[in-house]
Design a protein that fits this description.
With about 375 residues, this protein is of the alpha/beta class. The protein has helices at about 10-20, 45-55, 60-65, 85-95, 100-110, 155-160, 220-225, 235-240, 270-275, 285-295, 305-330, 335-345, 350-365, and strands spanning about 1-5, 25-30, 40-45, 65, 70-75, 80-85, 95-100, 115-120, 125, 130-135, 135-140, 145, 165-175, 185-190, 195-200, 205-210, 250-255, 260-265, 265-270. It has one domain: 3-Layer(bba) Sandwich (FAD/NAD(P)-binding domain), CATH 3.50.50.60. The strands form 4 sheets. The chain has a 7-stranded mixed sheet. Strands 8-2-1-12-19-18 form a 6-stranded mixed sheet. α1 runs parallel beside α10. The two termini are about 25 Å apart.
Length: about 375
């Protein structure tokens, strides 16, 4: 049995590794000239680590980048809005780990035969019979996996009438700041903007920033330094220490619900199927879940039945996570001073159990 994976990111390489371990011949088509990931840090949450356990990679990440759960959410003056019980979260859900996205790609790539990796290959069309037309010619397979991101050519080929990704109203910057002490993984909310930071295993600090903006807006490091100059420490210091060439800006999209993730011999996974806001930090973890679930579903050789089982298992869960992620982050992007004042007064009064229960749907998954 042969599988073609369109896209060599985290989801695509996880699918390639999972299928290879089950004896499939694989071919991974990646448009970029090399297999890597542009980005910064990544928190691999307990559900993502359990998915990677099926490939024998979970404990390696746990040992190399052990991390605490998110500490909570602050106001721009540093006062806590939500403060999590970290010991409880670890007992309840399991370990977290942090990794640079490129390092996770490298780890997954070691689980895939190098001969199967075809970089610099642009896919032009995917057909339901398993045919893939690309810049290197034509390939055919028993299974095609569309792991080619938000603007997926696989999805556009086979779901031409589906609504495309929707801009959610805010843009996102990511960067790595040089090593300096920070207090755990924390997010800070203002009015229509927020700043998060997370310590990395090597001492550097992964920072992510989101702000309401028209689609296509651009802003550099100087703009960010000015915007967050009066926020609590260590936010101004992190931005002051960062370098312009380490800043990545991307508009933020989510995918409207598809009626199915499968067509013929083709399955979508990750952002191609269910792009989501980064509010739960679940994008990569859901792609990893998709990949190992798909490989298990088609393991018996009946691809059609396996794809139906994959769709039944993954579509309800991932579309629920898309909705939950949208809801969790919505209050951070309110711009009304009255609404933000109510938010800032109300959140500290809510019991911790409310927030802990809201995390359970994301973290409780097991393969």
């Amino acid at each position: 049995m042969k599988a073609i994976i369109v896209g060599g990111g985290i989801g695509g390489l996880t699918a390639a590794a999972a299928l290879h371990q089950r004896g499939w011949e694989i071919e991974v088509l990646e448009r970029a000239p090399e297999f890597t990931e542009v980005g910064a840090g990544l928190a691999v949450q307990p559900n993502g680590l359990r998915a990677l356990d099926t490939l024998g990679l979970g404990d390696l990440l746990r040992s190399k980048g052990p991390a605490d759960p998110p500490a909570g959410i602050r106001r721009r003056n540093g006062h806590w809005l939500i403060r999590n019980d970290l010991d409880y979260l670890k007992r309840r859900f399991g370990q977290w780990a942090t990794v640079h996205r490129a390092d996770l790609i490298d780890l997954l790539r070691t689980a895939v035969p190098s001969a199967a990796l075809r970089s610099g290959t642009e896919v032009h069309q995917v057909r339901p019979d398993g045919t893939v037309i690309h810049s290197g010619g034509v390939s055919t397979a028993d299974l095609v996996v569309g792991a080619d991101g938000v603007h997926s050519i696989t999805r556009r080929s086979l779901w031409p009438h589906a609504r495309g990704p929707r801009y959610v109203g805010y843009t996102t910057w990511r960067l790595l700041a040089p090593p300096q002490p920070v207090e755990a993984s924390t997010e800070t909310w203002g009015a229509g903007e927020r700043f998060g930071h997370m310590p990395m295993p090597d001492g550097r600090v992964y920072c992510y920033i989101m702000a309401n903006a028209p689609q296509g807006s651009q802003g550099g490091l100087d703009d960010l330094r000015e915007r967050f100059a009066r926020w609590h420490d260590p936010i101004p210091a992190l931005l002051h220490a960062a370098r312009e060439d380490h800043v990545i800006q991307r508009d933020t999209y989510e995918m409207p619900d598809l009626s199915t993730y499968v067509a013929g011999k083709v399955a979508l996974l990750g952002d191609a199927a269910h792009a989501m806001t980064p509010n739960l930090g679940q994008g990569a973890c859901q792609a990893i879940e998709d990949a190992v679930t798909l490989a298990a579903a088609v393991d018996g050789g009946d691809v059609r039945a396996g794809l139906e089982a994959y769709d039944r298992a993954r579509r309800p869960r991932t579309q629920m996570i898309v909705r939950l992620s949208r809801q969790v982050g919505s209050a951070a992007h309110w711009t009304s001073s009255a609404l933000t004042a109510v938010r800032d007064a109300a959140l500290p009064l809510l019991p911790r159990s409310v927030f802990e229960r809201s995390l359970a749907p994301s973290y409780d998954w097991t393969p």
